[in-house]
Amino acid sequence: MADTTGYPELDSLLPRVAALASLDHAALEREEIALVGRKAGEITAALKTLATRPPDERRAFGAAVNALKLRAEAAIATRRAELDQVRANAERRSVDLTMPARRRWVGAVHPVSAVIDEIAEIFRGLGFAIALGPEVETDWYNFLALNFPADHPAMDLHDTLYLDLPPAVGEQGAGRLLLRTHTSPVQIRVMHASEPPIRVIMPGMVYRSDAFDPSHAPAFEQVEGLAIDEGVSFVDLKATLTHFARRFFSPSTAVRFRPSFFPFTEPSAEMDVECQLCHGSGCGACKGTGWMEILGCGMVHPRVLEQGGIDPERFTGFAFGMGPARIAMLRHGVPDIRLLYEGDMRFLSQFTLTSLPASDAP
Amino acid sequence: MNVSRRWLERFLRQPLDAQDISVRLAAQGAAVDGIEPLNAGLGDIRVALVEEVRQHPNADRLRVCSVNDGGAERRQVVCGAPNVTAGRKYPFAPVGATVPVGKGGAPMRIERAKLRGELSEGMLCSARELGVGVDADGLWELDTAAAPGTPLLEALPLDDDRIVVDVTPNRPDLLGHKGIARELAASLNLPYRLPPLGGATLAPDVAPVQRATGAREALTGPLRIAIDDPEGCARFHAAVVRGVKVGPSPAWLRQPLEAVGVRSINNIVDATNYVMLELGQPMHAYDLATLKGPALVARRATPGETLVTLDGVERALDAETTVIADAARVVGIGGIMGGAETEVRDTTTDLALEAAWFEPARIRRARRALGLSTEASYRFERGVDRWNGTEAMRRCIEIILLTAGGTVDGSPVDLHPVAANPPRIFLRLARVGQVLGLDLGQHEVERCLVAIGATVVAKPDDARLAVDVPGWRPDLTAEIDLVEEVARMHGYDRVPTELRPFRVGTLPDAPAVAVKDRIRRGLVTEGLAEVVSLPFTAADGEASVALLNPLADTGASLRRRLLPTLVRHAERNWNNHVRDVRLFEIGTVFERGAPGQRPVEQLRLGLVLTGAREPAHWTTDPAPDVDAWDLKGLAGVAAALAHPGATWHVEGDHFMARLKDGRTVGWAGRLDADTPPWGGALFGVEIEVTDGARPPVLVEALPTTPAVERDLSLVVPDGVASIAAAQVIRGAAGDLLEAVRVTAEYRGAALGEDRRSVTFRLTFRAPDRTLRDADVDAIEVRVLGALERELGLGRRGT
After folding, report:
1. What is the mean pLDDT of residues B214-223?
2. Taking the CA atoms of chain B, what radius of gyration do you get in angstroms?
3. d(CA A109, CA A332)
4. What 3-state DSSP class applies to B43?
5. Which of A307, B181, B649, B713 has the highest CB neighbour number within 10 Å of its CB?
6. How far is B461 from A312, CA to CA, in rounded Å?
């Protein structure tokens, strides 16, 4: 069909309608006003001449003008969409996506808490629950009930911080007040509070009269463990703690047990694991031995069971204690223990779960 | 305890390797802290024979020697030492060798040189130049049959290792070489024997020790021995040696002492130290001429008595201290230190020797009261072998006779008022199996016990062993002690590692465990870092708990609040030029309890924040700082986590968390701090942590009908709180009001002073139908009426 409206005065507009498809944004705006604008549009104006036409032509002419108007409007809409798309594409290309990302503050769990949680998780899988105890203890709970003979050189290993208070009276285990030097007094409290089978781990802060220097802190965390039942033996101790070490470090980690001395266990042992830095060949961190001391352990001494109100002939048990702060230091290469307790944001914020890779950092 | 490898070799009569010793001792419970090779720098030094000595033609003080160093040619060596003598052997450092202690103390390499025109090819050495002695008077004349050219380390017992053994407090037997040798012998399955003394082919003839069992006093030669305090001193060996010549010790006595880091003093003192380091029995030698009586009496000190000890310090003594006295005065603090007046001097000729046994707890008490810890007190407080005094006394006398001459006057005496034997312990084989979890069999159990020196008699009737423990193991007092010895000697590494069935424990988790965990997770989600602090602070009011023995560099009291320490952390971060600080701590605070009661311990949550609200980003740089609204939000989070049920109330410029019963459990607000000019405001929250169970979240039904929102901009005069308006809105709007929130606050001239406009956005919803505008219009009229009536508030612009 030849492109004609049948009216010359309208046909003269057809090339302009056809040209709409190649206009730029500004020209399109102008032509929109010039063609279909409400006041000055030429097609609008043509429509307004309808009344001046003979009545019998009005219908056909009106239809022709309306068709032209729809055609122009459709062409404008199509072209505008096209132009918008082009503009959006151009805008997208101009965004520099290498500019640094926007972040929120990310919190961090303290590295020692994280180690304690991990230890707890492994022992939960072995049927252990978590028990807690007070940080202030009497010398009865901290020493005597744990088979430290009164005034014995073994106490020299525990440089004790005593409270400037009169001794506690009128309770079980009354005595001089001190800050517990280990979490072992919680063993006695657990024995008093429950019956075998007992399987608990006991995390908490302990205190020693040590100067605050790169390798000592006067307060630090300990995780104690205790298992008591009929038939619990040194084999169970070795197996449980070896299982723990292999879960915590790696399935192939070498483990060894050496005899040691703690007043509250007998036989007593020290558990070493293969140095996690040199894997046994000897390095500075393990003083060339290839081993790292991880925990002290042993079979609960019969006198400790007695103090806990448990029959040592019927029940046996094992106990262990380890320092999660030291483990965290080894694991993360922390050179100075004071970093763990001084609230330095530069240190603590390294322990987020979502540290950004360096390439994404600004 | 420092141990010499060579000393151990003499007990075991075979060469040992220090690393192997270390592994074996560790496997038996004596951890080795370090191994220090001694005299390792002497590898280049050889034994050389000086064959000819002639005067140096150009120097009066120099001599030219012809030296046989084992080679075909004789070496010409120029030597300045006055004692160089033809036909004697000396240590020789050939050209190219390094001498450990050259001029100025540094190692020195020997070069070929011409000294005043004469060629010198090497150096003849003094003991000091080799770092093995202080005697620098001349060359070290070697008393050796070794041929010229023999390496010095092969010719003389110089190469050694100092092995530092970490001896646990229960093992006093390991505080002497004999005890260590005994452990090694058990590990190597070798015999061990007290070695012959150096330089002696035959031990000197010492009169047998005369036993005075059951007696309280005895005589040895002219010396009266008495025990007036048998609880403090249970046994006393004594001897008198006359006609000794005090002087330097020979190499065989000096070198082992130096190898373990003990300075050689003279032959008498060295003899007593040697015996202590070899057998673990501390000894003391008195100058007999200075003893009144002469007598040695072990008794309690009388209050007011004093003694000037060997270190020159005057010590006040109390009645709990066992002293050694002569007929007139105290001459030694038993088991701790001797007196200065009666010590052996260069001019001493007659000696009184003591090898006593002091009660451990009394020694520990006395040395703590005196603040005086010595090698002797260290051993006595751990427990010296009460049945080994005779061997120690004989050994000491032998060394003195060999190195200082003299004769024993009378018989050495062993005064033992109350005879006793080491204990007998019964061991049930079934108990070994119960504790160790494996059946070792009677034969292996016996083998293990014999290996530690016990005497074992089987009691077949009741499957028990009667075990007589050796005197050097005072730590073995009960059956369980023997179970440990069996495990130790059997070998911990031979116990299987097999997870056996177990019963799960009956105790549930402590309630605080889950609460702490929840708090930790909640606040990490809020972008805070967990901190752990030392709980020591300066005293913080009357209720503070002070330490009796505080540390020098931390506070002297226990914290009553977490926030002061958290403020210190913020300040330390500012000192490090860190501006953004967001920390929380879950920790214990302490407060004095009633008299005679423990302090009250309470778990608290504390948090501080300062600096930018979000990490710096180029689109909003600088990011706005945290403000009171951030604080208020975190305070709400903290309460929800730590103390659900507590609500925050505005009080002046801060917030207090209260329970329904009115008890205050928390504080939140702006903190005073030492803030640098570039630092932001510091905000903090501290709230008690309650154990109470956290009920599970009960889900609300999701809405099925649309909501209608209306904004109300009210003009609020100062003094009327927005929360009051919100309450009136809630009260008046009724059930269809779902939520009210503030969307804007505005102040401006148009409103006039002392007033603001607050815009509340009200969300309405009916659960069962779609609300129409007319429904909400009616409510709005009601709400506006109530606001006008109750608070005098009206809509803005009306």
Report:
1. 93
2. 42
3. 14
4. coil
5. B181
6. 24
Predicted confidence at residue B400, as pLDDT, reads 95
Helix, coil or strand: residue B53: strand
Across B704-717, average pLDDT = 93
- pLDDT tens digit string along B718-753? 989 999 999 999 999 999 999 999 999 999 888 888
* 3-class secondary-structure state, position B714: strand
Q: Which two tokens stand for residue B760?
A: 């509340």
Write phi, then psi, for A299 (nearest 5 degrees): -80, 135
Q: Which residue from B492, B531, B550 is facing A343, i.e. has the nearest CB?
A: B531
- What are the DSSP E strand ranges found in chain A? 129-130, 136-138, 177-179, 198-207, 219-229, 255-259, 265-274, 291-300, 316-322
Measure the CA angle with vertex A191, ends A187 and A192; round to 5°. 120
Residue B135: what residue type?
Answer: D
User: Do A183 and A307 meet the contact criterion of CB atoms below 8 Å apart?
Assistant: no
Which pLDDT band, with edges at 50, 70 and 90, does A355 fall under? low
**Pseudo-torsion of CA A341, A346, A350, A353, nearest 10°?**
90
* Alpha-carbon distance values, A288 to A257, A274, B16, B30, B199 (Å): 18, 11, 20, 17, 38
B27 touches chain A (CB under 8 A): yes
First CA to last CA distance, chain B: 94
Q: Output B114 or B297, whichever has higher pLDDT.
A: B297
Instruction: Determine how β-strand B413-416 pairs with β-strand B210-213.
Output: parallel
CA quadruple A57, A58, A63, A65: dihedral positive or negative? positive
- DSSP secondary-structure letter at B462? G
Tokens 């970093």 correspond to: A339
Query: Distance between CA B473 and CA B452 in Å, rounded?
Result: 9
For residue A360, pLDDT beyond 50:
no
The pLDDT, as a whole number, for residue A362 is 43
d(CA B613, CA B625): 5
Residues of A within 8 A of B637 (CB-CB) are: none
Of A28-32, A198-202, B398-402, B525-529, give the lowest mean pLDDT range: A28-32
pLDDT in tens, B106-156: 888 888 888 888 888 889 888 878 877 665 568 888 888 888 888 888 887
Chain A: nearest CA to B25, how far in angstroms? Answer: 9
B201 touches chain A (CB under 8 A): no
* CA pair distance B370, B318, nearest whole angstrom: 10
Q: Do A197 and B502 touch (CB under 8 A)?
A: yes
* CA-angle at A332, arms to A329 and A338, nearest 5°: 40
- In angstroms, what CA-CA distances link B654 with B157, B324, B639? 79, 71, 15
Residues 6 or more apart whose CB falls under 8 angstroms from that of B23 comprise: none
Average pLDDT over residues A333-361: 81
C-alpha B610 chain-centroid distance: 39
What mean pLDDT do residues B426-437 have? 95
**A129 → closest Cβ in B169, B505, B558:** B505
User: pLDDT tens across A81-124, in order?
Assistant: 988 888 888 887 888 888 888 889 999 999 999 999 999 999 99
Q: What is the pTM of this model?
A: 0.84
DSSP letter, residue B201: S
Q: Which of B34, B492, B534 sits opposite A258 (nearest CB)?
A: B492
- CB–CB of A171/A155 below 8 Å? no
Closest-CA distance, B385 to chain A, in angstroms, reads 17
Name B32's bridge partners. B165
Percent of chain A with pLDDT over 90: 54
Question: Quick one: pLDDT band at residue B199, thresholds 50, 70, 90?
Answer: low
Check CB contact under 8 Å for A267 and B532.
Answer: no
Contact B536 A218 (CB under 8 A): yes
Residue type for position A115:
V
